[in-house]
Write a structure and sequence with these properties.
Length: 271
């Protein structure tokens, strides 16, 4: 999402750095890259293919369909099967794939019958154009209804140390051994306005108190953003954070968070 222009619209300001960041992700062992047809629109998928195709074995490119982009900062659900078909075919072309390993419904469109949207994904999976299917911004009831059409392997909901609206869904995914992919794991909108360290430190302070955050970050020799990611990884073994970035230095900082193991006391302090 971050390798596009302002408002997730158009080309990135530094195209070369965006491509270099994608390539560096493989050097660091990243094996899941999450994107969407609507990022740009089309820009993110095209850059991923330019930087990484032919893709190495084991790399999963996950993309999404179901949101139209009339302009920068604007997002409109569109779950009409014919539109989802158009998006899927476009994603296959841009990513240079015959089959997408993980295709996620970006939103369930309330103006279109759920069964029509789920039925399209079921049909696309039967056609061999999608290997696995995921959902985004859904509750447990919606997940269970979708499972009448296909196995839901992942759920992508907004979730982070501060915004825990979807705790019940995290628990459901944990019990079902279903991947939970938290988007905005660092409250990225806030980060974009005020900077990673300052904004995440402030957000963490709301959850647990500045003293707790300062103590934990100092003991681990980490940044507050790294502690926020480590908390997500500690929250459940099925959590797959997707912190977005267009810079190699920020990517490297995020990846280092995977090497941080919070103690029981740390985790309790951040609850």
């Amino acid at each position: 999402m971050r390798i596009t222009g302002p408002g997730v619209w158009g080309a990135p300001g530094d195209r070369g750095e965006a491509l270099a960041t994608l390539r560096r992700s493989l050097d660091l062992g990243v094996n899941l890259i999450d994107t969407a047809e609507s990022y740009g629109p089309h820009v993110s998928e095209a850059l991923i293919a330019e930087a990484l195709h032919p893709y190495p074995a084991g790399l999963v490119i996950a993309t999404k369909g179901g949101l139209d982009r009339p302009a920068a900062h604007q997002w409109q659900p569109n779950g009409r099967p014919e539109r989802l078909r158009e998006e899927l075919e476009g994603s296959l072309r841009r990513l240079r794939l015959d089959r997408i390993d993980l295709y996620q419904l970006h939103r369930i469109d309330p103006a279109v019958p759920e069964d029509d949207q789920f039925g399209f994904l079921q049909q696309a999976q039967r056609e061999g154009k999608i290997r696995h299917v995921g959902l985004s911004e859904v509750g447990v009831d919606q997940i269970q209804r979708a499972q009448r059409f296909f196995r839901v392997v992942s759920v992508q909901n907004k979730f982070n140390l501060v915004d825990r609206e979807w705790e019940a869904v995290v628990d459901h995914c944990t019990q079902a051994n279903m991947a939970f992919i938290p988007w905005y794991p660092l409250q990225a909108g806030e980060v974009a306005r005020t900077g990673v360290r300052q904004s995440v430190k402030r957000l963490l302070g709301k959850a647990s108190g500045p003293a707790d955050v300062a103590r934990i970050t100092k003991r681990h020799g980490a940044t507050p953003s790294q502690i926020a990611l480590a908390w997500l990884l500690r929250r459940s073994p099925v959590v797959l954070p997707i912190p977005g970035t267009s810079r190699r230095d920020h990517l490297e900082e995020n990846v280092r968070a995977a090497g941080i193991t919070l103690s029981d006391a740390d985790f309790a302090a951040l609850r």
